[in-house]
Every structure is written in C-alpha cells, then in structure tokens.
Amino acid sequence: MLASCKDISISNASKKFPKMTTQDTTDQIEYIRTEAESTKSWANEEIQELNSSLKICCVPLPRRLFLFVKYIAPTLILLVSFVADIGSGIAVAVTHYKDGHIWWFTLTVIFILSPAVMFIAHAILKTATNPEVNLKKKLLWIVLYLCTGGGLLLWPLWGYVKKLIYAIRAITDEENSTIHLEKFHSIGAVNNSMQEMLKAFLQSAPQLLLQLYILISSPPDSQDTFTIAAEVVSILFSLNSLTIVVVHFEVNSKHHPSRSPTTNEQNPEINDLCCVAIEYLWWICSITSRVLALAFFASVFKWWVFVLCAIHAATISTCLIFHHPSYTIQNFVIAIFMGFVYIFCFVEYKVDFGRLGRVVGLYILYYSFTFIQNICMVVSAFCLSSHEASHRVPILVLHFVCFFFAIMLMLFYLGLLRPFYLYLLKKTRPNLTVQ
C-alpha cells in the first residue's frame, strides 16, 4: 500500500511539473527550475518559521512579531512609497502649472504616466500578435486596454492591498497561516520584480532627475517657497521609492544566476532586517551621488548629458546582448532597458556572475567607470557654472561623501553581511557548470 501511495504521489508530481523538452529555451528552463525549487524551499522555511521563534538582527522574535516584520512592514513600506511617489509627482506638476512652467508640467505628467503607457503598449502588442485570438476579440481587448489605461497606473495598489490582507490574516488566523502566506507569495509572483523595476525606472528615476535639475538650474528668485518645497518632497519620495524597488529586486529577484537556490546548509546567505537596512543605505547613497552628478552637469551642459547617458546605456546594453545565451526580441528589449537602469545603478539580471573574480571585477569596472564619469561631470560643471551660485560647493561635497560612503557600505555588506561571494569561490572549484 505504501508503494502504491508513493507511485500515486510521483505521478501527481509529474503532472504538476512535466518533463521539459530540449526545445525549451534557456530562460524558460531557468525560470521553471527556479520557481519549483524556490517553492519547495519556501514551504520548508515557512514550516520552520511558523513553529519557532525566529531571529531578526540576531534578536529572537515571537511568531506574530516576526511575521509582522517580514510580511506586513515591507508591504506597507512598498504601498506608502508607491502612493507618496505618485502623489508628490502630481503635486509638483500642479505647482509647475500654476507657476506657468508648462514645459516642466508636461514633462512631469509624462513621467508619471509613462509606466501605464508602456504596460498598455506591451498588452496591445501581445494581444495583436496572439494567433489564437480572432480579429474581433483583438479589437475588443485593444479598446479595453485603451479605455482602462489610467487604471494601470494605480493597478499595483490592488496587489499591495491584497498582500497586506493575506499577511494580516496569516497573523490573526494561526490555523491557516500557511495557506494565507501561500496566497501572499502567489500574488504577482510572475515578473513582479521586473514590473516594479519598469515602474521605478520609467517614472521615479526620470522624475527624480528632472525635479533635481529644475531645483539646481532655476534662479533663486524664480520660484516661490511652496514650489521649492514641492520639488524637494518629490525628489525625496522619488529617491526613496527608487531605492526601495532596487533593494527589493536585489533581495527577492529570481533572475540572479549567481544566487541559484540551494539548501540552507549549503548557502550562508541571509536576508534579514540588518542586511536589508545596510543595503538600503548603500543604494540610496549610490543613487544620490549619481543623480547629483547628472543633474549638476545638466544644469550647465543641458544637451550633452543626453549624449553621455546614451553612450553609457548603449555600451552596457551591447555587453548584455552579446553575453546573453539566447537572442530573442524580448531579451534585446530587456537589455536595452537594463542599459537605461545602469545609468543610475548596478543590479544583477540574468548575467553570468558565476565566478567570484568576475563578480568583483564587474562591480569594480562599473563603479570605476561611473566614478570617472561623475568626476568629469561634477568638476566641469563646478568650474563652468556661475561662481555666485550657492549650491556649487554643497553639491560637490555631498556627491563625494555619498559616493565613498556607498562604497564603504557596499564592501561591508558584501564582505561581512552577505558572504555568499566566498561561497561562490568554493562552489566554482573545481569542474563548475554554470546553470
């Protein structure tokens, strides 16, 4: 009887996870393998978490407090940062319109709506190229996408609210906690990180750079106090939202070939509150130094900043395209988008970081390349800007302080709090086959 039960379970598992053919692409193999293994490791982890007191920053916490810190608090932070980013953008757009700056108002509104426009274009293109849908249904879906386009801007709110509801139920309903947490993880599981990255770098990043440029380049008496306050608030919320999305992507993304799932005994990597806090400080300092250099340079060389950013993005996109194992239109578009992301920061996305030397080498290469760019931009803008401007010296000092503080935090984070690089060094010796 035990043998028959075992056969039944094996057959059910084979139905749930069918065997893959050799025709599957590398991306599909990686995604399905990662999804299955992460689901298994998640289930084991949740059983352990729900039945014992767990530690955050080496401090043991009871079950409810641990679930609050791990699930409710991050969801609330994402929800509040999303609303604050859009709300501050709308507020600063209104102030630009009232002040008669129609050009700044137009650009601000474009950056607010750009994620929704991109999602609509992607949905229409996917529907139009689907051979299984007839022409009449295609037209109906396209009209529906166009009519509900504005709702796509606020659609992530519904996902955050649902996650928050399931997290609260997991704490209050102890008997069905695992079920509620499973629903929590199932919401937006597919491509959720990339959608957040698209929203952040199509809206928050350009909005941050635009408002900082306006604040630096505008004469002191050309804007009233309320407009300056609105710009500062928008800058802070955009910077916070962008940093949170980058940290969330780096911690939870499934697109890190160098961080393939392993058992807890093999993998010393941890993602507790201390690691996330240090990583947040690292990225917010790194992004701050970068946007300060770009905005300061743009205030003096308005059009040359676009040339510099285009060369930077094209160089990195070309490297990503030639180093990707498969060549498809989707991979090409993603490489172009990631080239734009690397204008502001360095993240790992489906790049072969298999060996420690290459990982460290890429970090050193990127930050050296970026630091040389920043020095050239800041020094040239400092020398050629008006000597009467009061912001010259503070921007110069703040840029270098933020950059070197970010480097120190990165080394501390990667060297001590996330020692998985040492694990990679051991793993790659010998006879490594990078998956």
Automatic annotation (TrEMBL):
Its main location: membrane. GO terms for biological process: apoptotic process involved in development; engulfment of apoptotic cell; phosphatidylserine exposure on apoptotic cell surface. Keywords: Cell membrane, Membrane, Transmembrane, Transmembrane helix. Belongs to the XK family. The keyword Protease does not apply. InterPro entries: XK-rel, XK-related_scramblase. The chain crosses the membrane at residues 71-96, 102-127, 139-158, 303-323, 329-347, 359-382, 394-417. It is a multi-pass membrane protein. One of its GO terms (cellular component) is plasma membrane. It is found in: Cell membrane; Membrane. This is XK-related protein. The lineage of its organism: Eukaryota, Metazoa, Ecdysozoa, Arthropoda, Chelicerata. It holds the Pfam family XK-related. PANTHER family: XK-RELATED PROTEIN.
